[in-house]
Amino acid sequence: MIEVMIRERAESCGITTAYQLQKAMEVSPTLAARLWKGEFDMIGLVTLDNLCRVLRCQPSKLFRYVSEKE
Predict the structure, then answer these.
(1) Using an 8 Å Cβ cutoff, are 6 and 51 in contact?
(2) Pick the residue with more confidence: 16 or 70?
């Protein structure tokens, strides 16, 4: 399972709301809210590049693989 850590990374960069993320990324309110909540199944490379630029990080700081216990 992939764990989304976008909100945590954003907060560590001083972005404390989805609205602030929206403004920093220059994206729609809907996209910003979905990223903030981690409520998405796919992410485009352009969006990922934008996130990494705004949050000054590598993709590995935004996502983590968590092994599911069998």
Answers:
(1) yes
(2) 16
